[in-house]
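Predict the 3D structure for this chain.
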Amino acid sequence: MCEPIKNRYDFVILFDVENGNPNGDPDAGNMPRTDPETGLGLVTDVCLKRKIRNYVETAMEDKTGYRIYIKDQVPLNRSEQEAWAAVGVDAKSAKNLKKDDPELDRKLRDFMCRNFYDIRTFGAVMTTFVKAALNCGQVRGPVQLGFARSVEPVVPQEITITRV
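Done. Predicted structure below.
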């Protein structure tokens, strides 16, 4: 792999949405998320990560190292079981393997990082599949996102459709 990032870099991404809703709030009838004090539109970090994941998944089409870990309707344990199989761990003999190979957790984590783009990029907590004190661990990714804010306040519009 290439050399790791050694410095902090801040960057700005500008995107334009007209007559759209880039991040609706399900608790408010899918109305645009807004800051109640300023009226500025908000797009959550989770929404931005989803847009990046969707782009990478489409552009890279499951190429090695560019698979996506956090997917809709796909249990996280499925990918973690794949990591267990790749390093030769059987759930029945996991306790003994951990005693024989103290590096087993690191091998599982490294498998996940090699194969899943979003784990390498954003990090992940991969402790949902814990058996015999083995898990894929936690990774802090180099890319951390905050909320996006609109340049100007959002003015929600109500549109009523009537049929004659």
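Helices lie at 45-60, 76-86, 94-100, 104-115, 117-122.
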